[in-house]
Amino acid sequence: xxxxxxxxxxxxxxxxxxxxxxxxxxxxxxxxxxxxxxxxxxxxxxxxxxxxxxxxxxxxxxxxxxxxxxxxxxxxxx
Length: 78
Fold this sequence. Notes:
Elements: E1 3-7, E2 10-13, E3 24-29, E4 32-38, E5 41-45, H1 51-63, H2 65-76
Antiparallel strand pairs: 1-2, 2-3, 3-4, 4-5
């Protein structure tokens, strides 16, 4: 599970078993893990985060969307 970005308390990472899915990123803080699609940026699974924090995370992902998509394509070779 390669980490592609750390921002504050959040670790953004890919899961290698997700090869067949559309581009997305998992976001972890402590034991909470959410999943966001990257194109377009959209919440897939909240993973226990509260709504206000999901909004913050969504904005973080939107700000880094191009970088995350580039890393996705590098990692998965798509």
